[in-house]
Design brief:
Length: about 750
């Protein structure tokens, strides 16, 4: 309807005395879409005149004490009170349906069809042509006769007629009569849309919640909004009040307190709606408050958040998802009262406009240096002297929980803090290699297949060809990470028996992740990259042999031909070559935990054209100071052979068997010996210390090697002289006789 107003009431004196003339209300058809309200009152005689609408298409509807007349132009006239027992008892209401034909309310209700279904009544506009319109007063056959119009001056519709000039007519009110003022139209009230009241649990503090939210701020836990109200109070406003109500005391909201897991129940306490948590409504009545909703005299609604509740089903981080109080549980009612004590109320559902946004846990930040877990393949007591720590460590645990700090559960309270190993992918290359003793490629001796990583539960295994070489595990509660080696690895640096092989993956592939989950399932995670520089395994190398107490061999040759040596000369007699085993001059070493590689013996000569202290024999040299002394013999090495040469002539060789350590000394040409008085004197090969050595080298399976030298520079290689053989006297010695006689003729 476009507008609503009350029909004018006839002026004039009136009281409840049955002898008094009735007040007459003539009904006319309002303009289209108008709604007219006619208030009859209870304490006076009244006549409602229907004659002016006798020929209109109307529908009569009975709602409570009201009679509503529906017209075919969507207009309505409401007569109230019409159906009231007091009218019948006092006989103070009559209905004129035609001149001279007055009916009581009961007779009117019997004579004309009246609809008693308010729902149906709302569907019969306009009256003419509707299904229910077939039952309107005129369609029923109860047509009113044309009304007789009182001879009053023309009056517009719904306007109070002017006072009639009755000449000398006077009205003398009886003694004690109190004139009655016409009752104004009842007030109307319309409510606008209630503003959304949104609070965020992130601002909760320990003062109300027991624990702080992620950004505690007590002032931000309260929000207010004003309910828009539109009033029409023709009789003057006496009061406007606001009141909250709940559907039932202790009604369950379905909200869940995050810290206890109990439901939240509603109570109305001194006009304030209070949400309290408890196992049931009875215990919640005295339980902690989760939130309150209040309204002041001006219609300002205030939501105060006090404790956290569950929102959502567990999101990643604080996404501020919201939850609402269900519809139909909390109502706000505004009531306006005019100066005639007529009141009108309107209500709005509050719950759907209250939003409690979630708080989520706060992620930790990474602090401090990341731990490193270093193992050592060496057996205890066998590590390289001066090698890097640790020594002989096959498993090690480091606590990574202390690398995370500053995280919190937020306002919802504790859920769990869990540490996990995360490996992105399967068969992830580790940068580490298996040890393969069968690989003898000098470029990478002992290098096997690359070890790959796979995750199962809380364990990452490093495997190659079905063999597990190491594991990495985590304790989900403490963040302790344990690195355990099960098989030796290949290490590339053959020159360092303590070098470290380090697990290396791409960034972000191998991580330890701390996940904090609050009480309603929200979770945040903080990763630490473990892919580079965290897990390392130091090599083990072989243990070198030591020189034993076994007497060092000497190799002595003799230039004498067999059977020609000087009688009583030093042994040997007539030997041009000799072999001695030097392996027994070394104690047994060890290959270490990498396993067997090789043990071999080599000759080493420090330098080239090394002066040997021995000289070639030169028969052309007749210098009496050193008869027969030729050029000094020099030493050079080629492979496993050291040759002694002078002027392109090889005088002797020294060779070695790498596997057995056998050294062979062979003379090829006679040397010069300085002692001319001794045909069996010796010449010794004499060099500076450590110039000529036999070296034992032990190499393990991944190429690490250690060496032990034995000095052969002096006192090891000797060649005895050969001398001339004296003649023996045979036959009679010749006599030589001279004669002093002169020859004949002298």
């Amino acid at each position: 309807m476009n507008e609503q107003f009350r029909v004018a009431q006839v002026t004039g004196a009136g009281n409840s005395n049955n002898a008094s003339p009735p007040r007459i209300f003539k009904l006319t058809k309002p303009f289209a879409d108008q709604a007219v309200v006619l208030n009859l009152g209870y304490d006076q005689k009244v006549q409602v005149d229907f004659s002016a609408i006798a020929n209109e298409k109307i529908t009569l509807v009975h709602i409570g004490e009201k009679l509503i007349i529906l017209f075919d132009n969507h207009a309505t006239v409401t007569v109230e009170p019409f159906f009231d027992s007091r009218h019948d008892q006092l006989g103070n209401l009559t209905i004129e349906v035609a001149p001279g034909r007055d009916l009581t309310v009961a007779e009117f209700a019997s004579a004309f069809p009246i609809i008693n279904d308010p729902t149906a009544a709302s569907a019969v506009l306009p009256a003419a042509g509707d299904t229910l319109g077939q039952n309107n007063a005129q369609a029923s056959g109860a047509n009113f006769t044309a009304p007789i119009v009182d001879p009053l001056p023309p009056v517009p519709t719904n306007v109070l007629a002017p006072q009639e000039d009755l000449g000398t007519f006077q009205i003398n009110p009886p003694t004690g009569f109190v004139p009655q003022t016409p009752i104004p139209p009842a007030p109307t009230i319309a409510l606008g849309t209630l503003p959304e009241l949104v609070v965020d649990e992130s601002f909760l503090t320990s003062a109300t919640n027991g624990i702080d939210g992620s950004t505690p701020d007590l002032a931000s836990t309260v929000i207010s909004g004003l309910l828009p109200v539109t009033l029409n109070v023709p009789g003057g406003q006496q009061s406007l009040t606001f009141a909250l109500s709940i559907s039932a005391p202790g009604v369950d909201t379905g909200l869940i307190d995050s810290q206890t897991g109990n439901h939240v129940f509603l109570f109305l306490e001194n006009g304030v709606v209070v949400g309290r948590e408890g196992k049931d409504a009875a215990t919640a009545a005295s339980g902690p408050q989760d939130f309150t909703v209040s309204v002041d005299a001006g219609g300002k609604l205030t939501l105060t958040d006090l404790r956290s509740v569950h929102e959502g089903t567990g999101e990643n981080g604080d996404v501020s998802e919201g939850t609402h109080v269900p519809a139909g549980l909390i109502s706000l009612t505004a009531t306006v009262t005019d100066n005639s004590n007529q009141s009108t109320s309107a209500s709005v559902d509050v719950g759907p406009h209250l939003t409690l946004q979630d708080d989520g846990p706060v992620p930790s930040t990474v602090t401090g240096a990341t731990d490193t877990l270093v193992l050592d393949e060496s057996a205890l007591g066998t590590d390289t002297v001066g090698g890097a720590s640790p020594v002989g460590l096959a498993t090690f645990t480091a606590k990574f929980g202390d690398n995370f700090s500053g995280g919190s559960y937020g306002a919802d309270g504790a859920g769990s803090t869990v540490f996990k190993l995360v490996l992105t992918g399967s068969n992830v290359a580790s940068g580490l290699y298996a040890l393969d003793p069968a690989d003898v490629d000098p470029a990478h001796p002992g290098q096997g297949a690359q070890i790959v990583l796979n995750l199962s539960g809380d364990t990452i295994s490093g495997t190659a060809n079905g063999v597990t070489y190491f594991t990495i595990t985590v304790n989900e509660t403490t963040g302790d990470v344990t690195f355990t080696q099960l098989q030796n690895l290949w290490h590339p640096n053959t020159g360092d028996s303590d070098d470290a092989a380090t697990l290396t993956t791409s960034a972000g592939v191998l991580q330890i992740v701390q996940t904090i989950t609050d009480a309603d399932g929200d979770h945040v995670s903080t990763p630490i990259d473990l892919g580079t520089g965290v897990f390392a395994i130091q090599d083990d190398g072989p243990t070198a042999g030591h020189l034993s107490d076994v007497f060092r061999d000497t190799l002595i040759l003799d230039e004498s031909a067999l059977g020609t040596d000087t009688a009583g000369g030093a042994a040997p007699v007539g030997r041009a070559t000799l072999t001695a085993n030097f392996a027994d001059n070394f104690t047994v070493g060890s290959y270490g935990t990498d396993g067997p590689g090789t043990t071999k013996y080599t000759l080493t000569l420090n330098g080239s054209n090394v002066a040997s202290g021995l000289y070639a024999l030169d028969p052309a040299d007749v210098d009496p100071a050193h008869p027969g002394q030729g050029a000094q013999i020099v030493l050079n090495q080629s492979g496993d052979t050291i040759s002694g040469t002078a002027n392109g002539v090889t005088y002797f060789t020294i060779t070695i068997n790498e596997a057995t350590g056998d050294v062979t000394f062979t003379q090829l040409q006679n040397l010069w010996h300085p002692n001319t008085g001794n045909p069996d004197d010796v010449d010794n090969l004499t060099l500076a210390a450590n110039t000529l050595q036999v070296v034992q080298t032990i190499t393990d399976a991944d190429g690490d090697h250690v060496s032990t030298p034995l000095d052969l520079s002096a006192g090891v290689f000797t060649i005895q002289d050969d001398g001339p053989v004296a003649s023996t006297v045979t036959g009679a010695a010749d006599t030589l006789v001279l004669d002093e006689s002169r020859p004949e003729g002298t």
